[in-house]
Amino acid sequence: MPLGIITSIAACPAIIGTTQAVEQGQKQNSREKHRSRKANLLVTCNDPSRKAREIHGGTVVLRNNKLYCTVVNPKSKFMPEDGKDNPRDQGHQLAGYFFPYPESTWHKRRGEGYVSTIMDDPPQLNWIYVDKDTFEVKYGLKKDTIGQHVGPWNVTPIDRRLNFDGWEGFTVVEEHPGEWALYFDMNDDGLEGKVGLDKRIMEVELSRKEIRMMKGDCIL
After folding, report:
1. What angle do CA 87, 67, 151 make, to 5 degrees?
2. CATH of the domain spanning 37-210
3. Which domain of life is it from (predicted)?
4. What DSSP string runs through 75-110?
5. Which pLDDT tens digit goes with each residue over 93-129?
């Protein structure tokens, strides 16, 4: 048998293996593309109380360095402690994506950091993190995240629901009537000792919904 044919036959397994590796890498890259695309967070609340109707189907917004779940009616009024009507803007709708957190020790398989725009003009990004003392979900600059729970953030493989440190422990707390702040139940104990006994707490799920791409948008 000619040497050229023998060499070609011997090289086939290596060529096939390389091709398969490239194809797997391409598929992996395709699956991971969503992580760098801006997405809103949609709120699902299956709590049996009637209060769940206020936020089920709503979205997450950023306001005053904290994250909130919007009430379904965007024109609703929040009630401050003095009991007087005080209409307020619900905030900037979260447009978040995953981004490597500097000097983190997590393997990417476990997750990354999480950032969001905090305004559209001029565009500006902040890190999303969980307050180490109160378990509130907040946003801030890099200096604000030092010593806080900054990750790892990730998504479930099929429904792409947001999770933190490998599980879904998101809850909302009604800090004022109609004002639902987002928390993460780090100890899985119903935020015991973190919020007052008079505050209503409900579990929620947060699903990513990619922001519609417009003509001229760049695909990352």
Report:
1. 175
2. 2.80.10
3. Eukaryota
4. T--B--TT---B-----EEP-EEEEPPTT----TTT
5. 999 999 999 989 888 778 999 999 998 888 899 999 9
